[in-house]
Amino acid sequence: MALINENIICDENLKIMNVVERFPGSAHDAHIWRQSNLSQVIETIYRENNGNWFYLLGDSGYPLRPWLLTPLRNTIPGTPEDRFNNCLKTIREV
User: Fold this and answer.
1) DSSP assignment of 23-86, as one string?
2) Domain residue spans of the chain
3) CA atoms within 13 A on the CB side of 51
4) How much is the mean pLDDT over the chain?
5) Which pLDDT belongs to residue 1?
6) Number of Cα atoms under 13 Å in the Cβ half of residue 9
């Protein structure tokens, strides 16, 4: 059985907005994102609206972008940065 790496985007109401499931399980999340048509659409929308439209939440497999929030690296427990990471993780787990 071949493993597939899926990229799923949902809105704040958990409505699935986009699914990409054509890459093998060995494909890195950042590669899948770069290859998706949606990544260029999101970047264009963000630029045209001066960043006042939305944010995507991703895990550490994605690159940090102004519209794509990812966990901070090497945080110290109890700091605001650590609390940000915990909140981000909690939201993404939904």
Assistant:
1) EETTS-HHHHHHHSHHHHHHHHHHHHTTT-S--EE--TTS--BTTEE-PPSSPPTTSHHHHHHH
2) 4-93
3) 5
4) 88
5) 67
6) 16
* Stated pTM of the model: 0.75
Q: In this predicted structure, what is the pLDDT of residue 18? A: 86
Question: Strand, helix or coil at 91?
Answer: helix
Distance of alpha carbon 15 from alpha carbon 83, whole angstroms: 26
- Give the number of other Cβ atoms within 10 Å of residue 51's Cβ: 11
| Rounded distance between C-alpha atoms, residue 65 and residue 51, angstroms | 11
Helix or strand (DSSP H, E) at 21: strand 16-24
Q: What is the pLDDT of residues 10-26, one digit of tens each?
A: 888 889 988 888 888 88
**What is the length of the chain?**
94
- Residue whose pair of structure tokens reads 């630029």 in the numeric block: 47
